[in-house]
Amino acid sequence: MKRYHPLLVSIHWIVALMVLLALLVGGPALAELENSDPDKIFALAGHMIWGIVIGTLMIIRLITRFSTQTPPEADAGHAMLNFGAKLAHWGLYLLIFGMVGSGLGLALSADLFAISFGSSAATLPLDFKDLTARQAHGLIANLLLLLVALHLLGWAYHQFIRKDHLFRRMWFGKRAE
Ligand code: HEM
Ligand code: HEM
């Protein structure tokens, strides 16, 4: 098996784009907006939908990952690096689910679904910063950003130093050897 399943490949790239946008653009812009800003509720609704779509795609991706054949483990040339890559890949799944979980926790603890999507007349708290789920969401966002940067470094190492065309495994094409 030379490549990942095309569904896994598609979801890898869609989720990569969606997560990077949420981490670098959407999330920080949302956090900048004061809760008293009239645009905040609309922005919250958009970010929550975006995050839930990421979570749903990740569940489909995980099911595809376990139910399809994957290429043999890539060789980075050192047992420690190979172990690190495996750890990083599962870490990416874990942290993304951590983002979605803490986001949902935050939404539930501040009643954001009723405020953003329902007809609730309740208003937003002054800010979210004292909520544990908010603190976790911010912390996990930083960890995820760090791990994505490491993941990119891993890719660059394979691409430019080992020159083993690892990228092809996460792209479309003939899968059989
Ligand atoms: C937020 C962004 C990203 C996330 C969350 C992510 C996540 C993952 C995960 C979890 C895997 C392991 C395969 C699996 O089990 O599904 C993987 C593999 C891979 N990713 Fe990413 N990725 C991201 C961005 C990128 C980018 C920007 C590149 C390249 C420029 C890239 C290149 C690859 C390659 C080449 C593989 C295959 C590695 C192998 O065959 O061992 N990824 N990615
Ligand atoms: C992988 C998915 C997600 C990513 C990458 C993401 C990313 C972010 C980032 C980067 C921030 C700003 C953090 C900071 O500056 O400290 C943020 C804030 C926030 N996110 Fe998410 N998020 C995701 C999913 C969700 C979900 C599913 C929900 C709710 C259902 C949610 C609700 C929120 C809320 C309420 C805030 C706080 C805004 C504020 O402080 O005013 N997020 N998110």
UniProtKB/TrEMBL annotation:
Gene3D superfamilies: Transmembrane di-heme cytochromes, Chain C (1.20.950.20). It comes from Aliiroseovarius halocynthiae. Belongs to the cytochrome b561 family. GO terms for molecular function: electron transfer activity; heme binding; metal ion binding. Residues 3-173 form the Cytochrome b561 bacterial/Ni-hydrogenase domain. GO terms for cellular component: plasma membrane. The chain crosses the membrane at residues 41-60, 90-119, 139-160. GO terms for biological process: respiratory electron transport chain. Coiled coil: none annotated. SUPFAM superfamilies: Transmembrane di-heme cytochromes. This is Cytochrome b. It is found in: Cell membrane. Its cofactor is heme b. Keywords: Cell membrane, Electron transport, Heme, Iron, Membrane, Metal-binding, Transmembrane, Transmembrane helix, Transport. It is a multi-pass membrane protein. It comes from the Bacteria.
